[in-house]
Amino acid sequence: MSIERLRRIAGDQPAGDDSAGNGPVNPAQVLEETRLEYEQVQKELSEIDILIRQSSTEVEKLAQRNAQLTNKLRTMEANIDTVPRQDIKEIYNAAQEAQMRLFMMRGQVEQLQSRQETLKRYAETLRQVLNISDVVTPLLESGEAKRAPVDEGSSIIKVIDAQELERQSLANQLHDGPAQSLTNLILQAEICERLFDVDPLRARAELTELKQAVTNTFQKVREFIFDLRPMMLDDLGLNPTLKQAVEDFEHKTGIACNLTISGKDVRLPPHIEVAIFRIIQHLLKNVRLHADASHVQVTLNISEDKATATVEDDGSGFDVAEALASAGQRKTIGLSTIRERVEMLGGEISIDSAVGKGTRVEFWIPVAL
To answer: What confidence tens digit (pLDDT) does each residue in 64-76 have?
Structure first.
């Protein structure tokens, strides 16, 4: 929901103010809107499920087509001197088009799956709200619970603000990264097309470079998707996903990073796994951007009643109080928002750091195994 909608539903508009055509929203209306929202989300989930099935079928067909064209290319390259120039051009164009369509369709499937998971979590939240309505409504009607406006300082507003800023950051990364790379690929493809008739040898060299550029772009997109929403978190769980994230962090930054996992090797509730992964991911990002560290130690322990994680580095450190105040003012997904997320899940977090002495962040979240 948008911030404006939250404020309207919570009755932030002054009593008696009908300037927008509505007065303060009563609890019954809130629940009715929640019910309608839940039904709409369920409808969208059904539509997305159909799209995923259709897109997955198309991906399978394109993969078969791509394999056939790859075999043709190999045969042609083995007999390049006897193949007519027009045939070479047609096969390369067909292969390029098939690879691009396959790449785009796979990306579409992954985006749909990510959207599906997000909607499922949203639907579960709405369902829980509706389930407790029988308890909340009598309290509201009896006056035992008062409606409180959502103000700028509330946790939910800060979280939404931070999420919107994060989405803006992701949009900028997409524009400067994959989108720009795809534009360059199109230009390279046009160059190859023009060279076929005037300089086949150079066209072949350009095609080799184009193939490498496509491979590099595809790898960057895969990394971007992993950072955005790793599919293996849903499929394999938290432990393998953390291992992959730590390996990628070490490879990209050159900072030695060790991961120690102990306790029970079990799957946790999805929202707990996502929360732990995102917090560790962001703490590692802080190390990369700010710590100037040479080594990072990440630990995760799952016991009967809680999951405990630490991220410790030997970097430059910082003033904790100043950093928390600054993060709160910027409304970014920083330390203050991380603390709020942990506390909303019923856990605790401790941040131990000082200038020149490295940083150690430890948090735990309750679980019921």
So the answer is: 888 888 888 788 7
